[in-house]
Amino acid sequence: MPLDVPLGYQARPQFTPLHLRTQRWACVVSHVRAGKTVACIMDLVDAALRCKLQDPRFAYVSPYYAQSKDTAWLYLKRFTAPIPGAEANEGELRVDFPNGGRVRLYGADNYDRMRGIYLDGVVCDEFADFHPAAWPEVIRGRLSDRRGWATFIGTPKGRNSFFDVWDNALRADDWFTLRLRASETGILSEEELADAAKAMTPEQYAQEYECSFDAAILGAYYGRDIADAERDGRICEVPIDPALPVDTAWDLGKGSYGTSIWFFQVTPSGVRVVDHYENIGHDLDHYAAELRARQKAGGYKYGTHYLPHDARAMILGMKRTRLEQLMELLRGDKISIVPDHRVEDGINAGRMTIKQAWFDADK
Q1: Given phi > 0 = left and psi -120 to 50 = alpha, else beta, which region is 261?
Q2: Is 238-360 a CATH 3.40.50.2300 domain?
Q3: Which of 72, 108, 312, 322 could disulfide-link to 134, CB 3.0 to 4.6 Å?
Q4: pLDDT tens digits, 203-237
């Protein structure tokens, strides 16, 4: 007969969708002190108790073993103590259950310790700080034979491995995603948020409390502006308006630097950035072919191609300037050279443009 044992955990409404998910993979981007570690520890405990496979194995992994002990071990012991027959092993940071299930804490700093085990589920906390080999070379393989699941949780720290997981999850049908911004959850009081904002830069606050992957990247000129665009809903689906021309703006790379092309439409209400292409190690005919492919498949009707001022410069080893090459490759299209200007003026112009721009989230 099943036992009804109160464990002292009441799920916050913000995490109820996580507990009720059916997808194998999950990614949770959360502001600080939202309770994501507690929620995920309880998710592991619940799974270990309900799993019908023989000797279920579940793991919580943070970047460092000591960090796992500091952040999760107390929660795991506290919420499993009322379970009859549950045994906590302090030396190995694990709890064993009467049904043969087990939840154990690990650190990605010693990921080789997980080789040879199997897992029915794993939580990867603060994945941005993981050793780059921990997930692809070890943890992922532990889930294969028993079709185990994984949940990635964390607070943004720029566009890194955790951002890649989040970005992929948003595009995939077999992923559960949850983003918890402090301005929306109501978990922290308005007074606390206001006090935190006074002690931090706007970029730091946007990262820690508003879950921005862009705001606090050192050296990012437009981090705050992109964060504003994201918050305002201007990073979304931006379809091509067939009645308007598509202009392009180019950054011509040299050597190991990539060439980047932005595709945009100018409307009375602002700039619609509809596409972007970037690559490295190709001649200009490759990029011209990319433009023609979009013209054929996507119906792009080009207006003006804007090139940087150094397109007129002669490159060592070339008989023609890149402007001359593109004029031949894009014959029939209008090409314009953007005047040279001070870097500060360009940055300011970029910020003013971003404030009235919409960006296609996919392209």
Answers
A1: beta
A2: no
A3: 108
A4: 889 899 999 887 766 667 887 888 889 889 999 99
